[in-house]
Design brief:
A: about 290 residues, mainly alpha, ABC transporter involved in vitamin B12 uptake, BtuC, 11 helices, about 75% helix, B: about 400 residues, alpha/beta, Rossmann fold, 2 domains, seven-stranded mixed β-sheet, five-stranded parallel β-sheet, 14 strands
Amino acid sequence: MTDIIQAVINGVLTGALIAIPAMGLTAIFAVLRYVNFAIGPLATCGAFAAWVLNFRYGWPVLPAMAGSFVTVAAIGLAVEQAALARLRPSGALTVAIASIAVGIILENVLRFSFGNDLRAFDLPLMRDWRFWGLRVGPQQLQTAGIAVAMMAGVFAFLRFTRYGKAMRAVADNPDLARLFRMEPGRIAMATVALGTGLTGVGGALLGLDSAIDPMSGSRLLLPVFAAAVLGGLGSIPGAVAGAILIGIGEELSLLVIPATYRSAIGFLTILLVLSFRPGGLFGERAA
Amino acid sequence: MTNSTTRRRFLASSAILAGSLALPIRAMAQDGPIKLGTLTPLTGAGGPYGPVMADTVKAVVDGVNAAGGVLGRQIEVVSEDDQTNPEAGVRAARKLIDVDGVSAIMGTWASSVTTAVAPLCWESGTMLTTVSGADSITLLPHEGYIVRTQPNTILQGQKFGEFTVELGAGKVFFMSPQTPFADSQFSEITKVVEAAGGSTEKLIYDDKKPSYRSEVDEMMAFGPDVVVLGGYMPDTTVLLKDIYRAGYEGKMLAFAYSVNQKLVDALPAEVVEGIYTIAPSPAEGSAAYKALTELTGIASPDPYTTQIFDQVNMVILAIAAAGDASGTAIRDAFRTVSQGDGKPVHTALEGLEALAAGEAVNYDGASGPCDFTAEGDILDCQFRYEQVKDGAFTLLKIA
């Protein structure tokens, strides 16, 4: 029983990490209707941005996260303007494929700038807390806390601000939104900034927990994509729920199957969801 | 668009085709440069090693070219990146073999890459020299086209097992990602540890995860005296953090290629303190080792750099000894320059002189004596045992 509770705790902590970039992915899909596969390398960009601020300039964790958000949002906007937006008339698939290309370019830019070496944040490592035969890491809790705060922030933004409401409106019906004098173009850009910025913070949080190299974000792409699909592409609450479920699923699976097959859980989830509930758990555009 | 072939167009294209056939292709192949390929990981888990390896080959070849080349021809090095990834490795090897027409590929690092690339090499008659350890590699039906300078994992597994026993371990836990050598390494460790009355357990994990908390829980539940880490650097970094967080206080033993100075620098000191590492030991103090340090300017080259230095030297000598630069000629002549009663030589230049003077040569390298079995494994190798103390590696012994 302790095993199961421990696995659930571990899963929630991992899921909180996956949730942030999954929210970014799904937000971009909701408004622009394409899957941005560059989010893996964008997450890596976020991790490196935060690392530079923390390690080279000595910024504490929270300001470094904010810096990471801004940097990656800027990169995301630049990529969208320079490459992806022009391809949008050719269809979502073209844009998605172009985003893979963008991802490869970004990853190699990082590689040329920072090299292949592993880098870690300048933070002390703490032993876990133990209670009732369970253990929880203070750092994981902090990371999960930041993730939850970000989720709350995004929900509040979408629900209560003009821009947030406009985003939801455009996601729901671009033509109708235009009638109400919302500019889908500007809203789209704001969404890209939000989505890629979130991805950047997700990458940075992941880096805090482990270590970063030019591939660390790409390794995360599958669970992030699986989380967004499970929750229903386009649904922000869905992405969060999907991420937590994938996290728990992967950890629980360790109790019954060898650890080496853990990645398969992501694929298996996508397969099952697409077979039985193609719209995902939260259906289409539930945000 | 019409698709008709007019008589004029047909004649024109036939003439071009005939003209190109008339070109002296054979003569071109004989008089042009001899092409040798490096296929090292410039990116991925082997990224810290591959670039230096490729540069070393170029430096050796530059020296030989400056001295007039081999068989009166210059040597051209074509370097490709295997990305520490079998799929990318196969693509790069195809390019080296089919487009560049190299007669040897040197330096494949990860066992998974070498395993994937090997069939392309023996089928095309291209020599493959590797630094991969998985014992399955030389068991492939490679017809002699594979030679490796790295001791195989059966030997490495024995050393790991013996050392854990030496550390007083009763219970040994082996954690490794899925690699071609994980099973054989574990079974060799198990043999040695069980013979000494201990017990072992293994966990094969997925090396692409951001966290290994649950895996570490499984390890802690076994209560090991020594944890053997079989992974590469990126996954081992993440794993070590989680092992520390879990409060593990026992000993740890790892491959020196994963727990290296870069990993030690990247992690807090208390996480890596006391980890033991094992690596095939370069032949420090040998003439070839000295030549290598002078050539590259690196004071203490890693084992792979010493190995690829030996590989390119032996390939060049084999070409000279065979009087032919084809992959098959390199294969057939390889052991005539690597071992035997010839004059001991330590660089290609030294060996080329001796061969020109009509002497037989026996290459003694920077990584060791470089003598090979018929299967392509090295006969003799020393190992280097180190321990992390205060953020630096302390040499315990070479044996």
